[in-house]
UniProtKB/TrEMBL annotation:
Reactions performed catalytically: Hydrolysis of Pro-|-Xaa >> Ala-|-Xaa in oligopeptides
Single GO BP term: proteolysis
SUPFAM superfamilies with a match to the protein in the record: alpha/beta-Hydrolases (SSF53474), Peptidase/esterase 'gauge' domain (SSF50993)
Keyword terms: Hydrolase, Protease, Serine protease, Signal
Keyword Hydrolase: yes
Species: Trinickia dabaoshanensis
Protein name: prolyl oligopeptidase
Signal peptide boundaries: 1-24
E.C. number(s) listed in UniProt: 3.4.21.26
GO cellular component entries: cytosol
Domain Peptidase S9A N-terminal: 28-427
Cited Pfam families: Peptidase_S9, Peptidase_S9_N
């Protein structure tokens, strides 16, 4: 194999406007080719870099470091990169931030960061106007500037006296559960590891809770089982402070009498006014249909707990909530846009449950129960509506919104009327609103002040692109208002399209730095997301994932056809499962994009099942264990469809060394393969953050640096004069 030879370097110099001395003098390390062939149902597939999946191999570590060092030298040679980084960081860190509100009576818990803070803290206040008290500051936990800690999750007790919360190091999301006494600010002795993505449900005594914990990992534990089949346990404050000895009450293998399917996690949900508990076997820790069970709280006794199954994934239940003796469930069964049903918890037959909120023209995104009724956030095209209805489904009312946007984080307290929620827009920074029954509409609480970067010079255009099969695909175009349709604008096309997750309006202060360079942001709402409900999601799953890729390309063609940009200014960007879409951007039409930015992306889907987060994703991606599953997974595997001698665009692959969701080897293998295959002479870079994971828990500076690296790289490659390295 030959790659990055002197001839290629000369070709690169001739292709680009300019280059830097370091770019021409140094080349990235070459990855040895060690082919491994697998035959799947008669189809041979060769993997040249299978050995990179052993991330502990010193050779792999050395190659990864050499690649990242090379990337840093290349990026450092871009003249305006440092100024762009400072601008992005100032935009991202210049505002007071508050988010993730939880109500406990009149006490509010939330995450916050003052202007200039790198990391979110845990705080509370008594009432909207109360004084803010910081409970946990992760920035104070680090003693090494090269590593940081982050707040992963939190859950207060029903009386607001205690808060259980998770802390992890280096973006790993490997949470350790702690508990703090809110009144005194005293940290309790609890320190329970293996509690990633933990669901904590406090019992009514406010001194104990149910929580999920992953099994211990031994030297012989396969990677695919290291974060799988977590079980629900019960913990009493002051006892078993490290969690060892806490009794398991639900999960796979806990009781031979209860058939619990395999999955990522099992947990218990309770409500302070209900004598029942619901247990959830969640395959991928998401809001897709899962398996649900119910029992009386008084009957929970370890492995002898008589859990009664009430729903399988085929029943379409995505969320349940308890209200006294009744269960309320959001389900997509015979309702692709979802409906809300209710049944008595003593006999919760969901097949014959009362329909409280029938399926309508909007998509029900989420619901929450207050003392006065049911609150529903509904998707209505590009924006949301907030509805309130009685527990019997009568008296539906639409609550007036101050501006059009997306509703997130419905926060209610079943003992109090009303609701709080965050409202997001492409062009207005988020606000926290509250609604009280009888009011004319929702009012701004003032808890989240407007961003200093907010101005009226931005616009968001909502339109549609036509995909290959005639499907109309929503497209959001965000730009300066005075943008000219002359085809000269560097344009980032962003896409995700998996798990039924929607790309809702979301103000990003950092984007202003891109707009200042004449850039445009475009979000394509592809099949596989949840913009139009369950049917839209399923149309981009498994063997239909090709729809997601072609929808993304349709969005790019729309921007060209309508005069916003041209191929030489197009930048594709996606992260995580959006890496599958980036693979499509690379392999289906390699000449469409000038740049591809693939962040912590899934690229070798044929091998995804072998990593820690692989098995939970089988319902979304499919499995190589069946012939139909293999063909679906093979069609979406970018790594398997890179061909030698192809003129690929400039590419930056990014990963976090501690990523628990998508193993870094995806980006390593793709870097090696594309570097070896490309004939375009354009750079293919690997960017590694050794103090990060999947991006969750990253600091403001870490995120700003990534934006600056990717955007400076893109502006260099799309010809922006200020970003051209000096001639060598």
């Amino acid at each position: 194999m030959k790659q990055n030879n002197p001839l290629l370097a000369v070709t690169l110099l001739s292709c680009l406007t300019a280059s830097s001395a370091s770019w021409s003098a140094d080349l990235p390390p070459v990855a040895p080719v060690r082919p491994v062939e697998n035959v799947y149902f008669g189809t041979p597939v060769v993997d040249n870099y299978r050995y990179m999946e052993n991330l502990q191999d010193p050779e792999v570590q050395s190659w990864m470091k050499g690649q990242n060092d090379y990337t840093r030298r290349v990026l450092a040679a871009i003249p305006a990169r440092e100024a762009l980084s400072q601008r992005v960081e100032s935009l991202m860190g210049g505002d007071l931030r508050r988010m993730s509100f939880t109500r406990r009576g009149h006490r509010l818990f939330y995450q916050t960061a003052a202007a200039g803070d790198n990391l979110l803290k845990l705080a509370y206040r008594d009432g909207v106007s109360g004084e803010e008290h910081v409970l946990v500051d992760p920035a104070k936990l680090s003693t090494d500037s090269s590593r940081h800690f982050a707040l992963d999750w939190y859950m207060p007790s029903w009386d607001g006296r205690y808060v259980a919360y998770g802390i992890s190091e280096g973006g790993s999301e490997q949470s350790v559960l702690h508990v703090i006494d809110v009144q005194s600010g005293r940290q309790l002795a609890e320190s329970i590891d293996r509690t990633s993505s933990c669901i904590v449900s406090w019992r009514s005594d406010n001194r104990s809770f149910f929580y999920l914990r992953y099994p211990k990992v031994g030297p012989d534990t396969p990677p695919a089982l290291r974060e799988y089949n977590a079980v629900a346990r019960v913990h009493v404050l002051g006892k078993n402070e490290n969690g060892d000895g806490d009794v398991a009450v639900f999960g796979r293998g806990v009781s031979p009498k209860v058939d619990v399917p395999e999955g990522q996690a099992a947990y218990v949900m309770v409500s302070p006014d209900s004598p029942y508990a619901v247990a959830v076997a969640n395959h991928n820790m998401d809001n897709n249909p899962n398996t649900f069970y119910v029992t009386r709280l008084a009957d929970i006794h370890g492995a002898d707990t008589p859990w009664h199954k009430i729903a399988n994934p085929e029943d379409g239940v995505v969320d349940v909530q308890l209200h006294g003796d009744r269960l309320y469930a959001q389900t997509g069964k015979d309702a692709p846009r979802f409906k809300i049903v209710s049944a008595p918890l003593a006999h919760p037959d969901l097949a014959h449950a009362q329909v409280v909120v029938p399926e309508g023209s909007n998509v029900i995104d989420s619901f929450a129960l207050g003392a006065d009724g049911i609150y529903l956030a509904e998707r209505a095209g590009a924006t949301f509506e907030l509805h309130r209805t009685g527990f019997d489904g009568k008296g539906d009312a639409t609550i007036a919104m101050p501006f059009a946007g997306a509703i997130h984080d419905l926060a209610t307290d079943e003992k109090l009327p009303g609701v709080m929620f965050a409202l997001h827009s492409w062009t207005k920074s988020p606000r926290e609103f509250a609604y009280a029954p009888g009011a004319a509409g929702a009012v701004d609480t003032g808890l989240i002040p407007p961003s200093k970067t907010e101005a009226d010079d931005l616009q968001a255009v909502e339109t549609f692109a036509t995909s290959y099969d005639g499907t109309r695909v929503p497209v959001s175009i965000i730009s300066k208002k005075d943008i000219k349709l002359d085809g000269t604008h560097p344009t980032i096309i962003y896409g995700y399209g998996s798990y039924g997750l929607s790309m809702d309006p979301n103000y990003q202060a950092a984007w202003r730095a891109w707009f200042e360079q004449g850039g445009i942001m475009t979000v394509v709402h592809m099949r596989g997301g949840g913009e139009y409900g369950d049917a839209w999601h399923r149309a981009g799953q498994k063997q239909w994932k090709i729809n997601t890729m072609f929808d993304f390309l349709a969005g790019a063609h729309y921007m060209i056809d309508h005069g916003y940009t041209r191929r030489e200014y197009l930048v594709a960007n996606g992260r995580s499962a959006g890496g599958i879409v980036m693979g499509g951007a690379l392999t289906i039409d390699p000449g469409l994009f000038r740049v591809v930015l693939d962040d912590v992306g899934v690229s070798d889907t044929l091998r995804f099942e072998t990593e820690p987060n692989g098995p939970p994703n089988v319902p979304e991606m499919g499995s190589t264990s069946t012939e139909a599953g293999f063909h679906g997974v093979y069609s979406m595997s970018a790594y398997a469809h890179i061909h030698d001698g192809t003129q690929y665009p400039a590419v930056m692959f990014t990963t976090g060394a501690n990523d628990p969701r998508v193993s870094p080897w995806h980006m390593l293998k793709m870097t090696a393969r594309v570097q070896a295959a490309t004939s375009s002479g354009r750079p293919v870079l690997l960017r590694v953050d050794y103090d990060a994971g999947h991006g969750i828990g990253s600091s403001v500076k870490q995120t700003a640096d990534r934006f600056a690296d990717e955007w400076a790289f893109s502006l260099w490659q799309t010809g922006a004069s200020a970003f051209q390295p000096k001639s060598h």
